What we know:
Distance between the termini: 20 Å
Helix content: over 70%
Strand content: under 5%
Largest sheet: none
Oligomer: single chain
CATH superfamily: GntR ligand-binding domain-like
CATH architecture: Up-down Bundle
Order of helices and strands: HHHHHHH
Amino acid sequence: MADDVLTEGLGDEAAPGERADISSLEQSVSDMEGSSTRPGFRLADSHFHAGIVTASRSPRLEEVVAQARGEFFVPTDALAFEEQIEVSVQGHEEVLSAVIAKDAEAARTAMGDHIEDTRVHFHRVLKGKSLRGTVRRRR
């Protein structure tokens, strides 16, 4: 399952909080919140995910994330649609909180939720549907 591959590196009990550069991840989330352009948001988003991948020390995860991000964002960034920055930032903050807490299970769950939210939003965009009213589910 794709979610398992994308979150596998977060499962190492000692991993996220000890190896992740927390200040860099925090700065990436802050940059996303303050972004006023799609390229600025995407750059901060890329830095966040690169930090998580680096912390995982998983070459497989690095390869899969790079491929998935290219497949998702290269074709869709050319489309005109309103970014769901608030929902995306919320997802990143949840992952970051779990990483800081060194809670691998919560990090895995938060990343899975973030990936699913992104998938739902892109499917709506590709179908020409509005993103307004898409509410993020809570666990």
